Amino acid sequence: MTTVNNNKALDGMYWDNGNKVPDKNNGALTQSDFFALLTQQLAYQDPTKPVENDQMIAQMTNFTMADGITKLNENFSSLAQSMTSNQALQASSLVGRSVLTQSEELVFTGESLSRGQITLDNIADNMKVIITKPNGELVNSFTVDQPQMGKNEFVWDGSGQAGEKMPPGVYNIKVEVSASGKTESVPVQVYTPVSSVSMGNNGTGIVLNLLGIGAVKLADVLEVSYS
């Protein structure tokens, strides 16, 4: 048995999914949608029981709040972009200066001394700085006199064990601390020149490109030096 629909009132109540227009707002209601709903509500309300004034005011208030939140989000997005641009501009002033970061690599430019520091939580009997080539070959080693709690600075002039001048490049650095007959390695912070500044991707923020070492986050910088 075949049923034929001759009721014109049902026309347009079925949709072809293949011809559906893609939803560009991911189902989110816009201000136009709110006002369209309000218009339809007024058009189909019972004339004998109209919507109360306080209900109309409440609905209009909701529409206004929704529109305000949308504009507020847009303003926050614009503010975030502006702050990022300002940070990048300020960070660009670090190019050519040296910044202190934790690293196992030490850069020797051949023109200036290589500097760094070790922070100790406890008093140590002895502190030894060991500098090697990337292949592990020993370049030089020296001790830091009278290591104390807190910051202990060191300087390497780029010389080898025999006093020869080492070529500019990136060397590995390790610090061993001895206390009460026990020796252990501790983290090292070194000064490295900043070669350029980049805008980080995926929300990483401002990135400093350090000479010979690579990229580090601006937030990881412990100290800034003029040289």
What does this structure look like?
It is a single chain. This protein is an alpha+beta fold. The chain has a domain at 95-225: Sandwich (Immunoglobulin-like). 23% of the residues lie in helices and 33% in strands. The chain contains two helices and twelve strands; from the N terminus they run H-H-E-E-E-E-E-E-E-E-E-E-E-E. Strands 1, 3, 6, 9, 10, 11 and 12 form a seven-stranded antiparallel sheet that branches. Strands 2, 4, 5, 7 and 8 form a five-stranded antiparallel sheet that branches. A hairpin with a 6-residue loop joins strand 9 and strand 10. The termini are far apart. The model is unreliable at 12-16 (pLDDT under 50).
Could you provide a short overview of the structure?
It holds the Pfam family FLgD_tudor. With 227 residues, the protein is α+β, with helices and mostly antiparallel strands.
CATH architecture of one domain: Sandwich
Which H/E pattern describes the elements? HHEEEEEEEEEEEE
Determine the N-to-C terminus distance: 93 Å
Low-confidence stretches: 12-16
Summarize the main sheet: 7 strands, antiparallel
Give me the Rg, rounded: 34 Å
The residue fraction in helices comes out at 10-25%
**Mean pLDDT, all residues:** 78
SS-derived structural category: alpha+beta
- CATH class of one domain reads Mainly Beta
**Based on CA inertia axes, which overall geometry fits?**
elongated
Number of helical elements: 2
Beta-strand segment tally: 12
CATH topology-level name of one domain:
Immunoglobulin-like
**Proportion of residues in extended strands:** 25-35%
